[in-house]
């Protein structure tokens, strides 16, 4: 039987407690808000202050950092990293190994293809593909 929670110490010595999400078993910080209908894969982490909306699917090995917001019905592939204070809009799709930088914003319904990097503070307002980068 796996543990229901984990505790980690940050670089500044603060201890953060993560609990297992009922739908998928991923680790969710006590001060994060993850809708019960969201799926959080067992190897995913949602940091303190992050918000994950209803119907979201968070894939394996995903890290949602502090203060990030993931809108309802979004899909995060495997090995995705959503940076601090970043926003992933409702219905957005992030392929595997996507990195969304700190403070970046992926608009509602936008698809970011696998292996793409969205730089810090960037706004992605249309689909982002390897062959045609969005503004």
From TrEMBL:
Residues 114-135 have a biased composition (Basic and acidic residues). One of its GO terms (molecular function) is transferase activity. Keywords: Repeat, Transferase. It comes from the Bacteria. Residues 111-135 are annotated as: Disordered. The keyword Cell cycle does not apply. This is Transferase. The lineage of its organism: Bacteria, Bacillati, Actinomycetota, Actinomycetes, Micrococcales.
């Amino acid at each position: 039987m796996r543990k229901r929670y984990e505790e980690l110490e940050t670089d500044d010595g603060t201890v953060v407690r993560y609990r297992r999400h009922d739908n998928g078993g991923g680790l969710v910080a006590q001060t994060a808000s993850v809708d019960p209908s969201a799926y959080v894969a067992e190897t995913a982490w949602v940091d303190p202050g992050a918000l994950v909306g209803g119907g979201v699917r968070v894939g394996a090995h995903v890290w949602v950092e502090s203060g990030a917001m993931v809108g309802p019905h979004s899909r995060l592939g495997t090995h995705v990293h959503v940076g601090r204070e970043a926003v992933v809009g409702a219905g957005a799709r992030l392929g595997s190994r996507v990195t969304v930088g700190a403070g970046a914003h992926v608009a509602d319904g936008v698809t970011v293809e696998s292996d793409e990097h969205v730089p810090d503070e960037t706004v992605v307002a249309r689909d982002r593909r390897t062959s045609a980068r969005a503004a």
